[in-house]
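Memo to structure team: turn this sequence into structure tokens by end of day. - J.P.
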Amino acid sequence: MDFLSGSSTRFVFQFDYLFVALEAWGAVFSLVAGTARFFNFGYKTRSERYMIMILFSSFLLMISDIVSWLLRGGNFGVSRDLMIIPLFLTYFFSYLISLLFVFYMFCYVERRGINMWFYWLVLILISFCVIMTFISLENGGMFYVDSYKMYQRGRYYNLTENLAIIVMVCVFVIIIMNRKILGRAHTRAFLLYIIFPGIGLLGESLIRVNVSLFNLGVEFAVLILYSTMISENQHTTLMQQKLIIIQKEQLMAQERQLGDMRLQIVFSQVQPHFLYNCLNSIYFLCEKDPQKAQEAISNFSDYLRMNMDALSSTESVPFKLELKHVGNYLQLEKMRYEDELNVEYDLAERDFVIPAITLQPIVENAVKHGISKSENGGNIKISTIRNDEAIEIYIEDDGVGFDVSALEQENTEDERSHIGIRNVRERLKVMCGGDMIIDSKPGVGTRVTIVLPVKDQKGRDIELYY
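Reply from structure team:
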């Protein structure tokens, strides 16, 4: 960050103009990039906010350095007191950028352990240099304007320069220690922030110019940081787009799967022998009890309509509607089993929703595999409760019971019913994060528990009520 005395040689003069042109280009780029980032892309994350501040600080740094170069030697008749202002701003913004860079870097580095020791050491050193910059306005400790109106180094310049080198070493150590976390792109960009200013310091010791090569190195490093952030954002956007596509494909596949499940459940419920039994019972009722026959036909049509509606249903339905469907089915079965089939309800919770055709397949299994195989028939009880975690539905029967492991076996005696049960469990899981638990003992009976959680994995309420 040194401003050397002016040289009258054409060589130095040409280099001055070259570097000033580069600084002017850097200033324009930083201003445009910072403004575009601020207005078009916003500043949602900490890293984006720090990058915008770095770009605007870089713009002000380059402008201050250019103004200092233009005013050297008393050009434009500016007094020594005014000449010191752009020089002060040059030093100030160079340190400010270093401070913002550390904040930006620690957006990607873990704030713990030895990292924090280096973090506080760097902040203290940079803060000391900033304080020295302000003090130099009064005592010229780091810089001053001589009687020829040329910029000169102060007696404490070497001290602050050595502190800057220590800061660079500390940052280098932090980068190397965290290179796996940072990744290749950020590690390279952060290292270049050290390398470019370092080259600038070396260049100032070899070439006598009237502009700061160190600040020019800082500008190039800032541009590398900005391009890395842009590349990272583009990569993130691309990954998000791919993720959206994958999620859409998964959603479509899930919808197809749910459609297949609905179709399989409906087909598993509308079985030929069940239809035959219902129609045969209605046939005999038509002569024996026409009024009961009429009620049976109504129950039968409602039962078929509910099954057909389930083919196009993608949303959960009110539990009361599902319960009505179960009632229609049980009324049809009671035409066959009469007093051998008894149904009891204990519903503490009614006003909630449930995936369509969830309850009826379970009740049908209770009748078909439990009650019908019992010599004296049996009882079915349907009950509901609500606790802090879920709504639970119980379907219990005192039939013959069965071996639960048979549900997981293929090519069993009644594979169609088992497919229906497995599909009910899958639909509960997919549509509402629910579950189905089956507990059965041969000779004792069966209890099926349907669990509908009231909160998701993040603790948010699930809309089970209507």
